[in-house]
Write a structure and sequence with these properties.
about 180 residues, 10 strands, Double Stranded RNA Binding Domain, four-stranded mixed β-sheet, 2 domains, SHC Adaptor Protein
Length: about 180
């Protein structure tokens, strides 16, 4: 697994880097074809935050945890990602077999200048055609309440979102 460790407004100590690398290697058994992991460490007030994003094929696993120490935040992130993998194991195995030859998508996070009233965080990511089921799976893996995707059936941009009562909604453009 390729691991990239970044610190936002702090320098990540070598012992924390070693701990992160050691704990992330346990996911190698889930991704025999290899994966890319990006770890971001930062502090907010008195909390330590760790964000882990793992790209494998066309699938993205993401977790973010906050705690008093980086070690406990790391443990929370790892258990969250492992839970995501186990929850969706059979569906992911089918997709990863087909996706291993395709390079992993890269998310680029850019914070733009603060507007007068809003602090806007922009994300860009490559769009690829996918089915509604794949979009719902990806949304759940990322832990988001909505997900924008290119519908493979209609070739139009669509948005799937979570509704109350464990149902989903789909927004598509009008013809």
């Amino acid at each position: 697994m390729n691991i990239t460790i970044n610190g936002r407004h702090l320098t990540v100590r070598q012992d924390l880097r070693d701990l992160i690398e050691k704990k992330l290697t346990k996911f190698d058994r889930f991704f025999p074809g290899g994966a890319d992991a990006s770890v971001t460490c930062r502090t907010e007030k008195s909390n330590k935050l760790i964000e882990i994003t793992i790209n494998v094929g066309k699938t993205i696993f993401r977790a973010e945890e906050s705690s008093d120490t980086f070690q406990s935040a790391l443990d929370g992130c790892l258990s969250s990602i492992e839970r995501q993998i186990r929850k969706n194991k059979t569906r992911l195995e089918k997709r990863m077999k087909a996706d291993l030859a395709v390079p992993a998508p890269v998310l680029e996070d850019d914070i733009v200048e603060e507007e007068v009233l809003f602090d806007i965080r922009r994300k860009t990511f490559p769009i690829r055609p996918m089915t509604l089921e794949e979009a719902i799976l990806q949304m759940n893996l990322l832990g988001h309440s909505f997900y924008m995707f290119l519908d493979a059936d209609t070739a139009k941009m669509s948005v799937v979102y979570k509704r109350h009562g464990n149902t989903y909604g789909l927004i598509t453009p009008e013809d």
